[in-house]
Amino acid sequence: MINLQNVNKIYRTNDIETVALENVNLEVEKGEFISIMGPSGCGKSTLLNIIGLLDSPTSGSVELCQTMTGTMKDRELAAFRNHNLGFVFQSFHLIPSLNVMDNVELPLIYRSHVSDKERKQMVREVLDRVGLSHRLRHMPAQLSGGQCQRVAVARAIVGNPEIILADEPTGNLDSKMGAEVMDILHRLNKEDGRTIVMVTHNEDQARQTDRIVRFFDGHQI
Ligand SMILES: Nc1ncnc2c1ncn2[C@@H]1O[C@H](COP(=O)(O)OP(=O)(O)O)[C@@H](O)[C@H]1O
Ligand SMILES: [Mg+2]
């Protein structure tokens, strides 16, 4: 499902050069749920952004869903991301001026063949799955952190992507809310067979996934 070969990422700003990833090779099978661990600054978010086609490697190849992504143009990349990838971030990244339903509907707006009625139905179904059917018209500011993250998970999965990428999804949550979000991720993996790559600092959460990949200073260890 995910295949990275010899991926390097070097950030260059003026005369400073930062090697964020060095010769990373990573293969993730369809239906696998893996954890990425390592100290702050070791390249975890860079790795996730590269897998998620939000950033491109300095060298090396990224294959997703049996498609080589290196030669894709911006518009192709956007369409590929929209159909195949769902993101969950530590700080939720909800749009504060949109209510719960409208936030979750956003990824579907770019799908011209889906009617307004179908879209609303898909949104209601995913919000039901994350246990937020009773909060459809609430604004993000009226929700707890755990509820915000469940909205963000609903938004990530509403378009049925094969791959879910989560960057410290419980990092801003207390342990109870974090456990609820983890439950949802495990269900998406077990029941729907979604492939999940999650960055976490939590050893207990990581142990519950199929495999832990550890990084230090841009290297896999
Ligand atoms: N846009 C950027 N420009 C320059 N350096 C960056 C940029 N993004 C990340 N880095 C550097 O790359 C390294 C890896 O960062 P990151 O992937 O965010 O680490 P992590 O998520 O593991 O904390 C760090 O040294 C960071 O300072
Ligand atoms: Mg990070």
UniProtKB/TrEMBL annotation:
Residue ranges annotated for the ABC transporter domain, each copy included: 2-221
Keyword field contains Transport: yes
Signal sequence range: none
Keywords: ATP-binding, Nucleotide-binding, Translocase, Transport
Source taxon at top rank: Bacteria
InterPro entries membership: AAA+_ATPase (IPR003593), ABC_transporter-like_ATP-bd (IPR003439), ABC_transporter-like_CS (IPR017871), MacB-like_ATP-bd (IPR017911), P-loop_NTPase (IPR027417)
Family annotation (SUPFAM superfamilies): P-loop containing nucleoside triphosphate hydrolases
PANTHER family documented for this protein: CELL DIVISION ATP-BINDING PROTEIN FTSE, LIPOPROTEIN-RELEASING SYSTEM ATP-BINDING PROTEIN LOLD
Annotated family: Belongs to the ABC transporter superfamily. Macrolide exporter (TC 3.A.1.122) family.
The protein's name: ABC transporter ATP-binding protein
